[in-house]
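User: My instructor asked us to take a sequence, write out its structure as tokens, and then describe one feature of it. I'm not sure where to start. Here is the sequence I was given:
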Amino acid sequence: MAYSFIGSAIILKIIDVTIGLRVTTEEEVQGLDLTQHSEIGYSL
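Assistant: Let's start with the prediction itself. The structure tokens for your sequence are:
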């Protein structure tokens, strides 16, 4: 378990430094379907 935890922590840190793990607040407010996939999730 320790090996998996440490390996995962290292991988996540590398991803966070290079491309980031989270989207910006503006993208989250607009909606991830639109900002990440350029599609409308629901037509209401």
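For the description part of your assignment, you could build on this observation: The chain has one domain: 2-37. Try explaining in your own words what that tells you about the chain.
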